Amino acid sequence: MDEDQAFLQTRLDNLKRDGESWRTDLEEREIKMRALTGLPRRSMKDDLYQAEEQMQCLGDLVTEVTKARKDLEKTISPAKTSGFRSRIESGASLMFESNSSAEMQLVTLQQTHNATLADLSSITDKNGDTKSPTRLHSFKSSRRMQPKCHRRDGASVSPTKRSVPSLKEVWMVEIAREGDLTLQQQDEHAAAINTRRADDMQKLRNEHAPVHRAAPQVAAAVEADAVKRLIATQRTFASDIT
Predict the structure, then answer these.
(1) Which residue stretches does the UniProt record annotate as biased composition, category Polar residues (predicted)?
(2) How far apart are CA 201 and CA 19, in angstroms?
(3) What percent of the chain has pLDDT over 70?
(4) Nearest to 149 by CA among 226, 71, 214, 52
(5) pLDDT tens-digit map of 32-44
(6) Can you tell me the distance from the alpha carbon of 9 to that of 62, in angstroms, rounded to the nearest whole number?
(7) Main-chain dihedrals φ then ψ at residue 156, nearest 5 degrees
(8) Dihedral sign (CA 43, 49, 52, 56)
C-alpha cells in the first residue's frame, strides 16, 4: 500500500510539473508571436480564465488519485495483511529450525570424523610403518617375484622351506636401514634381492649338475652343502645391509 501511494504521489508531482512547464512554454510562445505580429498583449482576465481551467484539471486529477487510493485500501484489508505476515513469520521460524538442526548434524559428523582419524592414527602408531599399505604392497610384490627351487622328483619347493633366510627377514632389515622409501625404490630393492638369490641358486646348480647325474646320494650331500653356503651368503648379505 505504501508503494502504491508513493507511485500515485510521484505521478501527481509529474503532472504538476508538466502543467507548469506547459504553461510556461505557452506563455513564451505567445509573447514571441505577439512580438512578431505586433498584436497587443492578452488581458489579465484571459490569464485568470486559463489559470482556472488548469486548476480544474488538476483538481480532477487529485480526485482520481484519491479514489484510486481508497480502492487500494479496500482491496488490501488489514486481515489479509496480518495473515500474510503470520505466514511469513512461520516460514522464517521453520527455516531457522531446519538450519539449526542441519548445523547440529554437521557438528556431530565433524566430531565423529575427528574421532575416527584419532583412532586410525593410534592404530597406525601401534602397528608401525611396516604395517602400512605401501609396505604390505611391496612385500606382496616381492613375494610374487621370489624364485622357487625344484626337487629331484620335479616338485617345486620354496627356498624358505629349505632353511634359507626368507625374503621377509631380509626385506625387514632393508626397511630398518633405508627408512621411508618410495614404492618404486622398494620394488627395485626387492627385485635386486630376488635376482641375487636366483643367480646364486642357478650358479650352485650349474656347478653340481654332473654330481646329480652321477650319484643321487652324493648329489643330496652336495645340495645340502650348497644350501648351507647359500644360507651363509644370505646372512652375509643381510649383515651388509644392516
Answers:
(1) 122-135
(2) 116
(3) 43
(4) 226
(5) 887 777 655 556 7
(6) 10
(7) -90, 140
(8) negative
Q: Report which of 142, 158, 138 is spatially closest to residue 150, judged by C-alpha positions.
A: 158
Amino acid letter, 107: V
| Span between the terminal Cα atoms of the chain, in Å | 90
CB 149 within 8 A of CB 162: yes
Residue 111 gets which letter from DSSP?
Answer: H
Q: What is the pLDDT of residue 1?
A: 59
Q: Is residue 222 a contact partner of residue 211, using CB atoms and an 8 Å limit?
A: yes
Let me know how long the chain is: 242
Q: What angle do CA 150, 154, 156 make, to 5 degrees?
A: 40
Overall average pLDDT of the 76-103 stretch: 60
Q: What residue spans of the chain are helical by DSSP H?
A: 2-37, 44-75, 78-127, 133-144, 167-178, 183-207, 209-214, 216-241
The total of other beta-carbon atoms located within 10 Å of residue 197's CB is 21
Q: Distance between CA atoms of 174 and 240, rounded to whole angstroms? A: 10
C-alpha cell at 97: 529450525
Retrieve residue 175's grid coordinates.
Answer: 626397511
Q: How far apart are CA 207 and CA 200, in angstroms?
A: 11
Q: Which three cell numbers stand for residue 54?
A: 488548469
Side chain identity at 194, as an amino acid letter?
Answer: N
Domain limits, the chain:
2-76, 81-127, 131-241
CA 174 to chain centroid:
39
